[in-house]
Specification:
- This protein is an alpha/beta fold and 110 residues long.
- The model has no long low-confidence stretch (mean pLDDT 93).
């Protein structure tokens, strides 16, 4: 059973800045649970400043919460650490709880 973990945006920016290549991102993914309209205002870049692609999944929180078990695994890979993000931290916290309850390893970005 995985425990709740959190890091702030500054710590996550350091994680991204230290990426050297795609091998560094094979074990994790960013899960963005904001609404589509929010992503239009600001979106996580496709690549780091070093040119490393940032693996990410965009899905609304309500769509995520509607899925469990194998349906959830079709949306979010269970073999990766999932960094949950939203605009203010509340929805990512709820996403993290849902994923933890389904056996995922997660880190909430706040």
């Amino acid at each position: 059973v995985y425990k709740r973990q959190e890091i702030d945006n500054k710590e996550f920016a350091e994680v991204l800045a230290n990426l050297k290549g795609s091998e560094d991102t094979k074990d994790w993914v960013v899960l963005d649970v904001r609404e589509e309209s929010e992503r239009k205002n600001w979106n996580l870049p496709e690549h780091t400043q070093n040119g490393v692609e940032i693996p990410k999944i965009n899905i609304r929180l309500l769509d995520l919460l509607a899925n469990r078990g194998s349906d959830l695994e079709k949306l979010v890979p269970k073999d990766k650490t999932v960094f949950c993000m939203c605009r203010g931290g509340v929805r990512s916290f709820k996403a993290q709880n849902h994923l933890l309850g389904n056996g995922y390893k997660t880190i909430n970005l706040y």
